[in-house]
Amino acid sequence: MEKKRIVVLGGGFAGVYTAIHLEKLFGRKSEYEIVLVSRDNYFTYQPMLSEIIGGSLGVYDTLSSLRSLLKHTKIYVREIVEIDIADQSVILSPNFNHKNLYLKYDYLVFGLGNVTDFRNSPGGLHEHAFPFKNLSNALTLRNHLVDVIETAAIEEDPELKKQLLTFIVGGGGFSGVEAVAEINDFARSMASQYDSIDPKSIRVMMVHRKERLMNKELSESLSRYAEKILRKRGVEFLFNDELVSATPMEAFLASGEKIATSTIVSTVPCTPNPLVETLPFELCSGRIKTDETLKVLNSPNVWALGDCAAVPLGKDSFCPPTAQFAVRQAKRAAKNIYATIHNRPSQPFQFKQIGMMAALGHRRAVGELFGTIKLSGIFAWFVWRFVYLWKLPSLKRKFKVAVTWLLEVIAPGDAVQLKVQPIYGMSHLHYAEGEVIFNKGDVGDYLYVVVEGEVGIVTEKDGIEKQIATIKKGEFFGEMALLNQKFRTAKAYCQTSCDIVAIRKQDFNILVTSFGDLKAHFEETEQARLQEQIDQFRRKKEQIDAGNNDLKAS
User: Fold this and answer.
1) Which uninterrupted H or E stretch holds 105?
2) 357 and which of 138, 291, 367, 505 could share a cystine (Cβ 3.0–4.6 Å)?
3) Does pTM surpass 0.90?
4) Is the pLDDT at 453 greater than 90, yes or no?
């Protein structure tokens, strides 16, 4: 008998912990298959990301393999292309081929989390500000900091040197405060190794639209304490102001001030995954509305939790998008799914926030627990580390992080720059004669330009293949599926050995969106090719009709 399938979307706190609790409830030999869909094959403990910037933790110390956490869950490491609620299916992106993967479900859990959203941000920030959301962001920022300090150490132009040694962080929430603390510590510590850099020339600045730090999360006394500690260490604050634009060389503030800098970090507000907007659900501020049991409204087999869900919490309020809520929602969601399947009543989600803590660097932190207990200084820092170590998802990871922290005190790490392979917008490909580049029905994911060789375009009708075009050196193909967001309508194969440049769909969309004339050119080419196909079929039909008439006449 085929197993029924529970599909969990998202590899963050909400998704992973839901799968963990489902495994415990259903067991290994259940008639239900648990599936997790994640874009990465690892779980990131995000509260510790800021420590990667300063080197207190290594790149892999915040990561746990999904396979090590979920022994009995089937894991799909793919991007989600589309979610079809009516068909009860999730469409996943291709990998090593050009075909989407269709994943049917009986029960669905949304734990997609949120994404950094620059859509409502002013001009230039998207292109020139570093986001601070995931492991890739943290590693990219650390590499950049090493790069600018190394460059500043040998730069003779005083203005450029000043620009390189100026660092700006936008946003004074928890992420912004922890980021600016680590950047400040790391930049000053690394620069101290160079006689050519005057420590007084380093400027680390925070721009915050409110009048105090972490105004929503902490009391004013703790907020002012954090500000005092960071000011003492050299951080400058620009309150009641905000970043409005950026270039590669300057940051522009709402007050009209321009600051020469090569490093801008923007902790812009995150928004729920854009996939949520495409679903037939009732939304609240972009999040899926649920009832108090975490079930999506008017959907008997769909649940939502974490950052992408608007879960009721008391009267006229919703759960905040924090990890401590997501972890506890995951446990309740798993229990309610189990109860629903076994025709038992579901229970409402109830939880009162324990508290919030933020690290300030240099073994200092602030925190507020249970609404009444206020912590600050080195004691708060020890509590902060103990709590996060305790909450890490596996004993192996706890041990590794504890050892890393101990070694960091005894022998601090070096400020090395780890250059990783970038993802290029264009790829150079080589195909042998006769090889197929894509088939009819494949996903339109690339535009292709022929550098050398010839490519044949073949259509199929009634099981008979017919070549309709030959693409030669300097010509392109594959634009039809990209322009119309459709699947391939023909097969492309190499008539000879070919060298080809492939441009990703995302980059193709940027090109045609930014340059209207280019889009018009692609559309004209598309129409011309369609017309050529129509003309070919018409000529073929005329030949057939003429032949039939000759037969009749004879």
Assistant:
1) none
2) 367
3) no
4) yes
